[in-house]
Specification:
The protein has one domain. It contains seven helices and 17 strands. α1 runs antiparallel to α7. Keywords: Signal.
Length: 360
């Protein structure tokens, strides 16, 4: 009898755990995990009485982590989920955003509003994508492309999916790619011209005597593109920005910072970990919360990120210590039944085994 009760309890737990993660996460209690996947779309929005209503599904939007030309290689017969050699992999982790604001040219901004002079700090969660360089465009030299985004959150890393608001178009405080694409309109030919540039030319080297870790560094610089071309608002350079939240300077709106030329980026990478450090100084403007104005402030910033390999959402694995010049290689993830399984399904598997043992 005791054995039968144990088996019944195990079966009930099995049924509960079999409920899709998305169903459990929609209760709004924050009990969600990072194994619910990533997405670029939300299907739960609707119109109610002529008013658009967005139903937040908390799916991480990751398509902006890649330059748009990657779609030429990752879309197989229109299937975004198919495996290709350029899919790359994801890292999830915690990040911090430290900054100091200095007013220019006076100590007052719009309507006499003071911006805080003390150093500020924002705790964030973030995701990074790392993928191999594609065959085209031909003028790129970095052995890999890195994309990074982070958003303000007090949630723990296990609740990273729930912490993300898919309804907030400005949810990402930070958005950066080491390689960006652009478009310009050429008046002489009346045509659009597309291209790409390594915004951060990466110097990649083995980390000391550790053949299983690489370090990389570079300086953000797209000054040549900015000075010679009229960049459309939809291009990759425009999308990569830093936002300091609107409430920082009261009625001023968000402080909008385009990544300044001269910003320093460095980091390390192993098969399972990624660290980033980004710092710089620039003059920034404000979002037009209360109408257009020309106020500017000087911002010094420092960003750090520590991430671990996200096996649930990655179709490739990273091998650091490759013999070629790049020092890194990308391969298709194997052992899918175990390595790709979420913690929930690993527990289900263990319960199935326990059930069989109990009946024996």
């Amino acid at each position: 009898m005791a054995t039968m009760l144990l088996c019944q309890s195990i079966v009930l737990i099995f049924v509960f755990l079999s409920i899709p993660a998305g169903v459990l996460s929609r209760r709004g209690n924050g009990d969600s995990s990072s194994d619910s996947g990533t997405s670029s779309d939300s299907d739960d929005s609707s119109f109610s009485g002529g008013t658009y209503v967005c139903s937040d599904d908390h799916k991480l939007t990751t398509t902006g982590l890649q330059p748009s030309y990657y779609l030429n290689y990752t879309m197989v017969a229109g299937d975004p989920g198919a495996y290709t050699d350029w899919n790359g992999l994801y890292f999830q982790g915690e990040a911090s955003f430290d900054y100091v604001i200095r007013d220019l040219p006076t100590n007052k901004t719009y309507n006499g509003t003071d911006c805080p002079k003390d150093p500020g700090s924002i705790r964030m969660l973030g995701i990074a994508w790392v993928g191999p360089r594609t065959p085209t465009p031909p003028n790129l030299h970095n052995p890999f492309t890195l994309g990074f985004q982070a958003w303000q959150s007090d949630n723990s890393i296990v609740n990273i999916t729930y912490s993300y608001s898919s309804c907030d178009t400005d949810v990402n405080l930070l958005h950066l790619k080491t390689t960006v694409d652009w478009r310009e309109y050429v008046h002489e030919t009346n045509r659009d011209v597309e291209g790409a540039i390594d915004a951060v030319v990466l110097n990649v080297a083995q980390a000391g005597n550790d053949s299983h870790e690489v370090q990389f560094e570079g300086v953000y610089d797209v000054s040549g593109v900015r000075s010679t071309q009229t960049i459309f608002a939809s291009d990759g350079i425009h999308k990569d920005q830093i936002h300091i939240p609107a409430e920082t300077c009261s009625t001023m709106g968000d402080i909008l910072i385009g990544w300044p030329s001269g910003a320093m980026l460095n980091g390390t990478m192993t098969n399972d970990t990624l660290t980033l450090s980004i710092s710089g100084t620039t003059i920034a403007g404000f979002g037009d919360l209360n109408g257009p104005h020309d106020e500017q402030v000087n911002v010094t910033f420092s960003i750090t990120f520590t991430g671990t390999y996200d096996s649930a959402n990655s179709s490739q694995v990273l091998h650091v210590g490759a013999s070629d010049q790049s020092l890194v290689s990308f391969e298709k993830a194997t052992s899918a039944a175990v390595a790709w399984a979420s913690p929930r399904w690993l527990l289900i598997l263990s319960l199935v085994v326990a059930t069989r043992i109990a009946y024996v």
